[in-house]
Amino acid sequence: MSEVKFYCKDQQVPLEMHKVRVVQKLFLPTVEERVAKMNAAGNNTFLLQNKDVFMDMLTDSGVNAMSDNQMAAMMQADDSYAGSETCNRLLKSLEDVFGTKYFLPAHQGRACENILAEAFVRPGDVIPMNFHFTTTKAHITRLGGRVEELVCLSGLDPRNTDPFKGNFDIPRLEALIKEVGPEHIPFVRIEAGTNLIGGQPLSLENMLQVAALCKQYGILSVLDASLLQDNLYFIKVREAACKDMTIREITRKLADAMDLIYFSARKLGFARGGGIISNNEKLILKMKEFIPLFEGFLTYGGMEVRSMEAIAVGLQETMDEEIICQGPIFIEQLVKELDAYGVPMILPAGGLGAHINASEFLEGMPHDQYPAGALAAALYIAGGIRGMERGTISEQRNEDGTERYAELELLRLACPRRVFTLSQIKYCADRVKWLYDNRKLIGGLKWEDEPAVLRFFFGRLKPLGDWQEKLAAKFRADFGDSL
What we know:
3-stranded antiparallel beta sheet, alpha/beta, Aspartate Aminotransferase, domain 2, 41% helix, Aspartate Aminotransferase, domain 1, globular
């Protein structure tokens, strides 16, 4: 694999392996306007209007730039309700990449989670996973199941440089199976890589060990492949046993070991949509009836057919070793620059985006003032940059109503693929640096309107005191008439 970079004197800089042919104009409100808009959005970056955002680093889900080949493929879409050739082309592409025969389409990853939960989770069940994702956990708990997180200890240590911090703790997994009994564990979920702890990957060896343990105890192995493309890259460059394997060979070896794989094509494949794949017809039949019930007919599953054509091409592009490296090397550039300045980052650089350790950035701020959320609000004020809180706000309360504090308080700066230029990445680094120098001005948040489920999507908070106005005044003093 070629990690494409060029050299400028003694500096190594990532090189975009694409050219920009369609552009979208951006706007940057003044700092005073940004304070007003942040408060109008309830200090929740999800509630900001995109027209008021200069750099949208909220997510890489559904916002990756599509290639010319994907756009061209969309023009041949067959929009037949049933028996669509578009579905056949997507099925063929999935079989080529993963070696799977069966496919259940769904409109996105969380729809797959809903179907898996409906088909397999019963009250009292325990679902082990290396780490939970918000919607995955919500679907399991609403049906009476319980999630057990079994990520290796290094995964919760922000400065630990273990190359595979998303790995399962295999001894703990086997101990849990023996403790609760295999009959109470419908499946083990493997998330490659782990979203909520900094996009950290798992090794191929670790995932194969989990699959083998599941087979030993008669438990299903389920791979969440939504973030797989970055994880494949990390396996290729960090796992000694895989350095001479192609991305396709790694993908096929992993897929062959799994009972079920599901994915969000809003991440995997540079498109929109998703689905569940397998070589086990019996498992597919158990879930099949839920597709027309919750999603749509079996040849589109709630997806618009042009998106299905884009996925078919995007999956093939994911196997291109000069494309798959692009996200990770630009994320690494941002992480390295901020880490060198002293900004507390999750190391090593993972997939999906750069992750700031908000607990250390805002040292001393109590969990119940939501440091990751406060930092997200502050960064929008400082630069018009929309990140995503991945901390306590992203959790759900305990059954008794008490707050469940997150293991890590992170601000995620997602890097959608083929969207930002290096100058924009450097602008982001500059604004984070300024904010770090002025971090003592940042105060906490408190709830104003708190939904019971998935509160981070549409809950509203307000600042404790007038710290946002003081931060804006300092920005104006330092930057003058600059926006």
